[in-house]
Amino acid sequence: MTPTSEQVAAHTALFLDIMDQDELAIVRRAYAKHVLANADIDDARVGAAFAAVRREQFLGPGPWPMLRWPHRYVPTPTDDPVYLYQDALVGIVPGRGLNNGQPWLHAMLIAAAGPRPGEHVVHIGAGVGYYTAILAHMVGESGRVTAIEFDGGLAVRLAVNFASQPNVRAMQGDGTQIEFDLADVIYVNAGATRPADIWLDARDAESERALAAAFEKGGGDA
């Protein structure tokens, strides 16, 4: 039986999509190597997470605004997600200077925090969730992540991005006030001069590794 033109078109589109995803997987692995090299770390688990998580799934449709110095956004040439795999800031609300943060810096801090399979991570200032997904990859299906975002618009995007991922709970609110379960790691991407009391109360005996790592950043982009 000769396939119809519609069947041929559908098969071709599927083949091209598979090919594109295979190519992007190669790009992500190269991106992960560059990010870890820039962070001056050698952490296979962090590298695997950066190579696995698709940045384009969290940043909305392209073209994307890339932050270039001094302080101006330049759109990517097209909506090809390959442009997102740079060790660079991407605007999530450019008009307010809110960005998907610097990959090498997050890689360094996440490596210092060292989330392990089966653990509970709380991500405060989760933004649209790209780095939440990195954390979720590291704790695996046996672990879980509570992602908290103060900004209402970003919190909506965060919830949509994790609607089908059962080990991530997205919440909107003030991360210094919302109560959450005892955490193995508390990863903070928000300006703060000291750990909030609620974070100290929600740590387990080893959680200093998380708070110390998060506060080296002292605030910034999620």
Report on this model:
This protein is of the alpha/beta class. 41% of the residues lie in helices and 16% in strands. The protein has seven helices and eight strands; from the N terminus they run H-H-E-E-E-E-H-E-H-E-H-E-E-H-H. A four-stranded parallel β-sheet has the order 7-6-5-8. Helix 1 runs antiparallel to helix 2 (44-52).
CATH architecture descriptor text of the largest domain:
3-Layer(aba) Sandwich
Mean pLDDT: 84
Order of helices and strands: HHEEEEHEHEHEEHH
Integer-rounded radius of gyration: 18 Å
Please count the helical segments. 7
CATH third-tier fold name of the largest domain: Rossmann fold
CATH class of the largest domain: Alpha Beta
Largest sheet entry? 4 strands, parallel
Low-confidence stretches: 1-5, 11-16, 215-220
Distance separating the two termini:
53 Å
What is the overall shape?
globular
Q: What number of domains?
A: 2
Strand order of the largest sheet: 7-6-5-8
| Percentage of residues in strands | 15-25%
Question: What labels would you give this structure?
Answer:
41% helix; Rossmann fold; 222 residues; alpha/beta
Give the structure's gist in a few sentences.
By secondary structure, the chain is α/β, with parallel strands linked by helices. The protein contains 7 helices and 8 strands, in the order ααββββαβαβαββαα.
Strand-helix topology:
Blueprint: H1 5-39, H2 44-52, E1 65-68, E2 72-75, E3 90-93, E4 98-100, H3 103-113, E5 120-124, H4 130-139, E6 144-149, H5 152-161, E7 168-172, E8 185-188, H6 197-201, H7 208-217
Helix pairs in contact: 1-2, 1-3, 2-4, 3-7
